[in-house]
From TrEMBL, chain A:
InterPro entries assigned to the protein according to its UniProt record, in alphabetical order: MetI-like, MetI-like_sf, UgpAE/MalFG_permease
Species name: Asanoa ishikariensis
Cellular location(s): Cell membrane
Domain of life assignment: Bacteria
PROSITE patterns: ABC_TM1
Alphabetized UniProt keyword annotations: Cell membrane, Membrane, Sugar transport, Transmembrane, Transmembrane helix, Transport
Annotated GO CC locations: plasma membrane
Membrane-spanning ranges: 24-50, 85-108, 120-141, 222-242, 281-300
Topology versus the membrane: Multi-pass membrane protein
Entry protein name: Multiple sugar transport system permease protein
One Pfam family linked to the record: BPD_transp_1
Family: Belongs to the binding-protein-dependent transport system permease family.
UniProt record, GO biological process: transmembrane transport
Keyword Metal-binding found: no
UniProtKB/TrEMBL annotation, chain B:
Main localization (coarse): membrane
GO CC annotations, alphabetized: plasma membrane
Protein name as annotated: Multiple sugar transport system permease protein
Residues spanning the membrane: 20-39, 87-108, 120-142, 154-172, 202-219, 258-280
The species this protein was found in: Asanoa ishikariensis
Family from the record: Belongs to the binding-protein-dependent transport system permease family.
From TrEMBL, chain C:
Family matches, as PROSITE patterns: PROKAR_LIPOPROTEIN (PS51257)
Keywords of this entry: Signal, Sugar transport, Transport
UniProt entry tagged with the keyword Cytoplasm: no
Signal peptide start and end residues: 1-20
Protein name: Multiple sugar transport system substrate-binding protein
Classification via InterPro entries: Bact_solute-bd_prot1, SBP
Source taxon at top rank: Bacteria
Amino acid sequence: MTASTTGAVQTRKRRRRTNARQNLIGWLFVGPFGIVFLALLVLPICYALYLSLYQKTLMAGTTFAGFDNYLKAFDDPSFLKGVWFVIRFSLVLIPIQMIISLAIALILDEVTSRFARFSRLMIFLPYAIPTVIGALMWGFLYSRNFGPIADVFGAFGAAGPDLLSTNMIFYGLLNVVTWQWAGYYMIILYAALQGIDPTLYEAARIDGASRWQIIFRIKIRLLTPALVLILVFALIGTLQFFNEPKIIQQLAAGAIPDDFTPNMYAYQQAFTLANSNYSSTISFALGAVVFICVYVFMLATRKRGNFMS
Amino acid sequence: MTATNIERGRARRKPRHIPLHLVLAALVIYFLIPFWWVIVNSSKDSAALFGGTSALWFAPDINYVENFKQLFTYNGGLYARWLANSALYAFAGGIGATVLSVLAGYGFAKYSFVGRRAGFSILLGAVMVPATALVIPTFILFSRAGLTDTVWSVILPTLLNPFGVFLVNLYARDSVPDELLDAARVDGAGEFRTFVKVALPLLRPVIVTVLLLSVVQSWNNYFLPLAMLVDNRLFPVTVGIGLWQSTASTYGAAGTNLWSIIILGSLVSIIPLIIAFLSLQRYWRGGLTVGSLK
Amino acid sequence: MKTKQVLAASLALLLTGAIAACSGDDSGGGGGQDKPTNCTNTIPKPDAPVVTLWAWYPNTQLVVDNFNKAHDDVQVCWTNAGAGGDEYDKFQTAITAGKGAPDVVMLEADRIATFQIQKALVDLTDKGYQDVKANFSEGAWKDLSVGSGVYGAPIDGGPMGMIYRKDVFDKYKITPPTTWAEYETAAQKVKDAGGPLFGDFPANQPAYVTALLYQNGAQPFTYDPANKGEISIKLNDDASKKVLDYWAGLVKKGLVGKQDQFTPEYIAGVIGGKYGTYLSAAWAPGYLQGAGVGKGADAKVWATAPLPQWDPANPVSVNWGGSAFSVTSQAKDPALAAKVAFGVYADDASLKDGWENQIIFPLNLKVLKDPAFIDAKVGFFDGQQANKEVYVPAANAYKGMTYTPIGQYFYTAFTKQIAAINDGSKTGSEAADALQEDVVKYATEQGLTVK
């Protein structure tokens, strides 16, 4: 916070002197990215918006439709169910993920053995695995005929849950995503914890604070910006859920229909049903939903000092 | 930066924490089980894979050599090509994205130019645009431009990394003092020279982090190449394995034991990134603190 | 120290790239569209005109080589663009983009109408169809026809039968059921004795369930492009409801499984003796063996019998799967492409390789009448003369089906309804009604007139 404000003050001072030069050089630095940004973000978004205003059918071809596609999308059970699913999934997933990664980060901050360092790396490792492959591995592990989960339950004489069935797929996916990302979030939190000045703990201890008080009053409080950051990442990631269900669909087509998540639905519309107009509508509507969700969240947490201040 | 302080603080207490270690051990087992599974099962032929041998232990005959041979010869050695493609996309996309991010992040942090504020706000918004929601519009756009089914269709979209710009900007604001830059300018260095000689070395941790994150992102990318590519000789390994998986799930694939090579292929494809992560850990750990500590 | 680590990591990544680059030859990506450079096969006669082909059967390499060796005036450049759904998605994309499709594409018979309605396929009636018409049965041609046009050259078919486990049947003292009523009785008997599931009702195989509907005389779709945009959809008639209610009943009573097929889970169940029967087509043994079935403890337990019937007095043969080569409307030289479509996989050597390795069940009458094929003792079935006893009669009795021009959507919708039956949220009849409503709605949206 302080560093950046002094920076800004300094730049303001210099501005008067070398305005034109600053302009030119600043744009030279930002320009290349700006071009990519325009070409690969702004342009596709505008194009999607344009496409979403047209309608394409087998018999009639392409016709102008105005906002009909949007009216259709927000009345389309496939799209709405998909949106509802990803929202529900986020609401369950994100707290679980955050609690797990926070707990691990706190443990690792506490324990400094060689084994702890080893664990830190191992827990992080799934992040390096392509989601496609993570989903594939778990798909196998869920097998009731030859997977280890079935063995564990079998040892107690119980039938294991079928995590690929319609009723359980929610939990099956929950586990895959948690496995993949908890380590990454843990590392962010851990790094933040390591950055906290240890004299704070000493001072608190002298004041008679218990270990739990230190954890809650100091550590977690100071972690708030990092937690907000994670939350935003997780929210963006989950709302656009695609890779994991798309891969696991090959093992559980009954439980994961083509309109399972909004992104899968958009994919189906674009590639299977050749309806790029409606697909754009869904992409655009999804983008809007994500943007609004995140923006509302950012506003709500603004006072707490979030990472974009 | 404060690592030594922490170590000193810790050294004084040195508790054993046995229950915490047990928790950690359980966690490590959970996180490693899929890896163990893939190592064990890539040694099996299909009969052993599905024929009731334990999923977490080796079958009596170890088939690594046979499976390796099959992996690298099936479909005329296509798998090796996929690995090469993945490497190409990851490096070209990752390096490109990093260069752009560093330039722009530094520009936003250190120069006040017309449109800087507006530009930065737009950038913040862009961080929130779901990348996959962009894939289909980009695909449609590219297909009109005749760019689909080329290496460019995969590399170009990965160049866009607003979060990278954001990270670099944040880091540069904090870690590259204006005084240092001014000093260099006073010594007569040009802006670009100042950037290369003064700022870049200071930005090293964040550069490695952004590079690593973007390389991982492109290496692991699935949706984008899946949408863009038709020719399977251009596939990255993720899409290729997905292709095999769906082939194995279609009746027309008679006569080939695809599942074994799918599993071995998965194992081989994750090794490079694991090595990269393990050997570069001190960099990315430093870089990841950016943004979380404000 | 730090530099060393960076070096190590970069080396590891580069090395994989280098190793990979060595083993694959580089024909570069993208670039020139005119001359196909990305063939999986090597073209022996590079001066001849080239026809591009998408196909996914495992012996395609051999089949294409056979063709190229035998022809001087045309050469085939083959790519595997994915199996089934993946390939259709790619083809669909190419149709939308107006470019990128191959000259000849392998399609399952049930998808032809879907692409025909988008004008993506070329009518072959005047492009060599007459010359080979006599080589295939009427049913085979009907499957590839839309209205009066013929849009594919037959490769293989999937006459259906009932694969079963002799060990299970012996243990529970049952004989192969010949009617669906007997099938249920036998299933109940096995269950009561504590035996395995008798069969399976997979949500991910709507084409298979559609075949079961046909078997009871359902006629889900009638479509002829001659009647501009008119289609009749009858997915909830009594015949369909009866079949779906029957299966919903079996699922509810726990007599059959509800596992997706062609998945590792299903294969493991088949190997492990979890299912007494596998209702499938003639290509199934090849698929199962590739997946490792019949190689371990379950060797020599497999046998096959005709598919159970609704009315044994009027048996109906049905078909599941089977493919054709279609010429796409993006073909540069449709006549030449048609020559390839009819010529590839039509020579004796290729056909023999196909059926001997059980990759395909050929439809070419030359083979279907060949005693070597008819009398062949199939190893997977422990020497049973499966073709003679089950599949050839089924293929000969097959009359062909009319497929829907909105196949992609229909199958997605059907998968959802089968899943609903399986999780108990709908009865068979309810699922049929919901399916009818869903598909009619889509057809109407697409501008078709639903009668």
